[in-house]
Design brief:
Layout lengths: L2 H19 L7 H11 L6 H12 L4 H22 L9 E2 L2 E2 L1 H5 L1 H20 L7 H15 L4 H11 L6 H27 L3 H28 L2 H4 L5 H4 L5 H23 L8 H11 L4
Length: 292
Amino acid sequence: MKFTERFIADKELVETALRGVFRGKVPHADIYDAMNYSLLAGGKRVRPILTIEACRLCGGTAEAALPFACAVEMVHTYSLIHDDLPCMDNDELRRGKPTNHVRYGEATAVLAGDGLLTAAFETALGAGACLPAERVIQALELLSVAAGPAGMVGGQVLDMVGEGHALTLSDVEELQQLKTGALISAAAELGVIAAGGDETKRTAVRTYAQKLGLAFQIRDDVLDVTGDEGSLGKPIGSDAESEKTTFVTLKGLEECGRMVERLTADAVAALSAFEESWFLEELARVLVGRTN
């Protein structure tokens, strides 16, 4: 199977599972509508696909990884809802649609994010139907750290504090390793846990994902300058408008391009211990050239 075919198949597997997460939920239907509005709005689904493919890489199945994959995407979606709020970035467009708070109101958007975060852990627990309890516990611990103040939430705090201030390269790297990189890294490592991979495999996949996550964010910063709103599905130039220091601010477009190439090469090299890593290698290369 070629890369594109497998990517599409993985994505459809994730989409089908996500559509079923809140199916049949009737009480307080308006909150489920708001949660599904953002959860099912599309997107690349890079994080859950990382979970599925890392599991396969370590000898596991997509089905075993699917509860963790869905949980990661639910956490990611909650973070986008809250990131768009007026008290945060105050964005009105996400994936080509009005943001959650524009569609449902600020209070419902906050609760929709809260609901997705808590439901993510309920979804992850569903892996206990086919995985040993110790693997599920390891996964929940990893996801909770990556999503919390030592991970994504901490990165968002640094992002807010940094607005209007000149940050150093190390400041921006720390911010993005927490805000974006922590969940990407956890997504890949969750796949290894689902497959029962050892610590050596977890370390290799973690390194791959950390390099990939940083390259992904640098490319995102570039697209905020060079992209167009139609392709991105969100406003461009928002970083400059918010007076945020980015990789482009510090290094310029050309050097950012070189940084992305180096980080991608490092990500691919981290997978050298695996025999069948072609999909994750190609995924890293594809993300380098993305336009949205």
